[in-house]
Write a structure and sequence with these properties.
The complex is a heterodimer of chains A (114) and B (115). By secondary structure, chain A is mainly β. Chain A has no helices and twelve strands. In chain B, 0% of the residues lie in helices and 50% in strands. In chain B, the strands form two sheets. In chain B, strands 2, 4, 5, 6, 9, 10 and 11 form a seven-stranded mixed β-sheet that branches. A four-stranded antiparallel β-sheet of chain B has the order 1-3-8-7, with no helix packed on it. The chains are: A mainly beta (114), B mainly beta (115). The interface between A and B is medium-sized, with 27 and 29 residues.
């Protein structure tokens, strides 16, 4: 069965530190990849998505992610985090040609200290 | 704002009871899906409706059922509630499917506690 693994459950950083959150998926076929963010008390928001083309994807709020097909990975990065980035981050995959079944990882809670 | 609203935001039910959760999608969104998010976990796909027909289902038993209405609203019904059904239930809607490049918009969810 397809699955998504997020390596870090909790990450604590100071402001201005760089961020990298790991995500690996298990599926040998064509996939579409997503990162969602959930700020405290708010709904899930799409940060960025990859469907095809350039494996380096830029999203909102200065986030980017790189799809490495050979490693089945889609890691999220941000060069300099802010206190407002404190949230839970979810990696998700949907199979190309499928419907809206997003397979989510367990999430990574990020806390950024001033 | 995503334009996806859910009600109620919180509710408590007793084991064995039935519950109906509601969702109102953006106008024009013909695809709605429901997810269950247990504490400390990522959302899990329950099922999807497209033009009022269920056309995809995750690993959830038949006591989880749904409806989609022509006015872009939908319902999730859960019968014979169990303690493990306690979770945040998320409604997500889109025009078309994510695999076709369309963005899925999530509501803020309904917190269900089963006691």
């Amino acid at each position: 069965a397809q699955s998504v693994s997020q390596h870090n459950h909790h990450v604590i950083l100071s402001e201005a530190a760089s961020l990298e959150l790991g995500c690996n998926y298990s599926y040998g076929g064509t996939v579409n990849l997503f990162w969602y963010v959930q700020y405290p008390g708010q709904h899930l928001q799409l940060l960025l998505k990859y469907f095809s083309g350039d494996p380096l994807v830029k999203g909102i709020k200065g986030f980017e992610a790189e799809f490495i097909k050979s490693k089945f990975s889609f890691n999220l990065r941000k060069p300099s985090v802010q206190w407002s980035d404190t949230a839970e981050y979810f990696c998700a995959v949907t199979l190309s040609g499928g419907y809206n079944k997003l397979i989510f990882g367990a999430g990574t809670r990020l806390a950024v200290h001033p | 704002e995503t334009g996806v609203t859910q009600s109620p935001t919180h509710l408590i039910k007793t084991r064995g009871q039935q519950v109906t959760l509601r969702c109102s999608s953006q106008s024009g969104h013909n695809t709605v899906s429901w997810y269950q998010q247990a504490l400390g976990q990522g959302p899990q796909f329950i099922f999807q409706y497209y033009r009022e027909e269920e056309n995809g289902r995750g690993n959830f038993p038949p006591r989880f059922s749904g409806l989609q209405f022509p006015n872009y609203s939908s319902e999730l019904n859960v019968n014979a509630l169990e303690l493990d059904d306690s979770a945040l239930y998320l409604c997500a809607s889109s025009w078309g499917t994510a695999s076709s490049g369309n963005t899925i918009y999530f509501g803020e969810g309904s917190w269900l506690t089963v006691v």
